[in-house]
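How a chain folds remains the central question behind the approach discussed here. For one protein, we set the task of working out the structure tokens from the amino acid sequence alone. The sequence in question and its structure tokens are set out directly beneath this paragraph.

_____
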Amino acid sequence: MHKNTGSRAFQLAMIFIKEQLKEPTALFWILLSPGAVFYLLIYSKGDDNFNQDYSAVTAWFYAYISSSVAFFGFSFYIIGRRESGFIRSFIYTPHARAVFLIAQLIAYSTIACLYCLFFYMMTRLPFGGYSTYEASTLMIRFYSCFILFCSPGLLITALPLNFQTANTVFSILSFIMLALGVAQAALPEPTYFPIELFNPLSLGKSIMQQGIQSLWKIIISIFVTFIIALLLACKYLRINPVWSRY
């Protein structure tokens, strides 16, 4: 790999970050909307929820936000830049693909961590004061969840999907995961495990609640799977838009 790959990827990542932060719609749907739903649910159940463990109460929300950043940020914008002609115009060599994907990863890893921190600041005070250690621990767990969802997201980018169809696919996946999560919450505890096998959101919730040390084997497999998916994406990244005749 070229010596300047890292610097070029970092410079491109800064452009992607600025581009994303200029979109208030993404900020609303990914961060502010879950925050509003969180407070509505918490207050509807009474003040006793604020006496519970913070990570246990918020685990589902952190997992959902991480999936949204991975699907509608990291993966969706790969498809969007392909369909806009950006990839065909500027990214047509193996080195350029590597730079682009690394930049995309750096950009949305940064955005994911920022969203995690913002959600923590939005929701922590009713449970007590802020803690740097707790925030750092939650961010590590959150990033593991983000990587978990990036792997299927990368595989979806290899499909011949246009911008609108990709949005529909990611929306359907999010809905299915949420529906399975609701079903899991309504079922007796012994039936949880079979549902978790088919619902990455449940696994993300477990990571946020139980931590890295308890699930370290799963965490390692998540990162190994992501590295494989990233290498495959780098090799088989679609260059031409779906609408293109070339």
